[in-house]
């Protein structure tokens, strides 16, 4: 579900602010009923009309990107840095990243114009596994991994249980490679978790998002999601609803 004014803006009716004016002045109907309140949520099956004319809603599209380093997870940047949507120059739909990866973090990132799915995937109550591979400073041990798995305190709040394993360790370079699977999505969470156990992250890549992996995708490359993959994402989010 998305806010009505956002749907109008995405459909090209008007800017978000102008769409709010249209709503407040009674120009918009949802399923035949005039709506004047802000914040009304609408879904894909709702009929939306502006002055009696049904609005065109973009066909939903879904992409998996292998995000490269040094790119902003956004649709624009006030410092004119490259953003992930720059990699989709020929896509007509207005797509948005689902969640974010840091500027220097690489890996699996979903982009779509399906706001309903985006909210479903990002909502804290829906537990979608995300697996990262981190190059961290120092020789990490099983005791440290246990702390990650049981949860560590980050910004005053304990993280949820995770899965962790050591992939390799290089004593001469004093670095370890660790795989970490979490289902939360707090800002800079993986980096903060490793910082909390005294092993700062030097390099980070998200290897998978739910059942989606980067197989066959080089940094900067993307592909469309298959129908069954979209179904798997929706199903995983609803099955893992922690409020049930």
TrEMBL record:
Enzyme class per UniProt: isomerase
SMART domains: S4
UniProt-listed CDD domains: PseudoU_synth_RsuA_like, S4
Domain RNA-binding S4: 2-65
Family: Belongs to the pseudouridine synthase RsuA family.
Alphabetized Pfam families for the sequence: PseudoU_synth_2, S4
Coiled coil: none
Sample GO molecular function, one term: RNA binding
Top-rank taxon, per record: Bacteria
Keywords: Isomerase, RNA-binding
Origin species: Carnobacterium inhibens subsp. gilichinskyi
Protein name from the UniProt record: Pseudouridine synthase
């Amino acid at each position: 579900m998305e806010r009505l004014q956002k749907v109008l803006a995405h459909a090209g009716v008007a800017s978000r602010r102008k769409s709010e004016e249209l709503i407040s002045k009674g120009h918009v109907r949802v399923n035949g009923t005039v709506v004047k309140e802000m914040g009304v949520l609408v879904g894909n099956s709702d009929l939306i009309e502006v002055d009696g004319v049904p609005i065109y809603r973009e066909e939903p599209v879904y992409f998996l990107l292998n995000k490269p380093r040094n790119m902003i997870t956004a649709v624009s940047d006030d410092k004119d840095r490259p953003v992930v949507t720059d990699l989709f120059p020929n896509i007509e739909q207005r797509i948005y990243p689902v969640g974010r990866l840091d500027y220097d973090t690489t890996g699996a990132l979903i982009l779509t114009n399906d706001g309903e799915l985006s909210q479903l995937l990002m909502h804290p109550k829906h537990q979608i596994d995300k697996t990262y591979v981190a190059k961290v400073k120092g020789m990490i041990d099983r005791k440290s991994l246990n702390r990650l798995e049981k949860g560590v305190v980050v910004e005053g709040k304990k993280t949820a249980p995770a899965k962790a394993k050591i992939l390799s360790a290089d004593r001469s370079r004093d670095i370890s490679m660790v795989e970490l699977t979490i289902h939360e999505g707090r800002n800079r969470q993986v980096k903060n978790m490793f910082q909390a156990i005294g092993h700062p992250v030097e390099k980070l890549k998200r290897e998978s998002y739910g059942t989606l992996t980067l197989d066959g995708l080089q940094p900067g490359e993307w592909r469309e999601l298959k129908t069954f993959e979209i179904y798997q994402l929706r199903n995983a989010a609803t099955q893992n609803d922690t409020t049930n």
